[in-house]
């Protein structure tokens, strides 16, 4: 049975990703410092619900160093650098990190680095229970 080239390429990519996940760790995420040295100046844009609550667009610098992720904006708000995890292949990587602050809550970052671009979403759950979501994107440095 013949298969369309696009379908084959898609299935091949899925199988490659699954095999990497199985080989990397039981959880499927690398915990090593595979993104160390990566930095990006990203534009952070609130989603509609956050904008309706008065949140504004801003610029942030995110970085990966010594197995930790840091955001300059959230560092100033008491969120310490935190361990990141994810997976990487030749021209792309995915990462996830959770930063906490004793006074300001929890920020969860989920992002992708594709070629020279960093894109993703962050959710800030404040101590008072307010949840704010933002999209971010910018060039990889």
The total beta strand count reads 8
Query: For the largest beta sheet, what order do the strands appear in spatially?
Result: 1-2-3-4-5-6-7-8
Reported CATH architecture of the largest domain: Beta Barrel
Largest sheet: 8 strands, antiparallel, barrel
Low-confidence residue ranges: 19-30
Portion in helices = 10-25%
Number of helical segments with 4 or more residues? 3
Main structural class = alpha+beta
- Overall mean pLDDT stands at 85
Shape field:
globular
Strand content: over 45%
Please render the helix and strand layout as text:
Blueprint: H1 5-24, E1 39-46, H2 48-52, E2 58-65, E3 68-71, H3 72-75, E4 82-89, E5 92-101, E6 105-114, E7 117-125, E8 131-139
Antiparallel strand pairs: 1-2, 1-8, 2-3, 3-4, 4-5, 5-6, 6-7, 7-8
Question: Would you kindly provide a brief summary of this structure?
Answer:
The protein is of the alpha+beta class and 141 residues long.
Structure description:
This protein has two domains: 1-29; 31-139, Lipocalin (Beta Barrel). Helices cover 21% and strands 47% of the residues. The protein has helices at 5-24, 48-52, 72-75; strands spanning 39-46, 58-65, 68-71, 82-89, 92-101, 105-114, 117-125, 131-139. The longest helix is centred in the N-terminal third of the chain and has 20 residues, at 5-24. The chain starts with a helix and ends with a strand.
Task: For the structure shown, list the relevant keywords.
141 residues; alpha+beta; Lipocalin; 2 domains
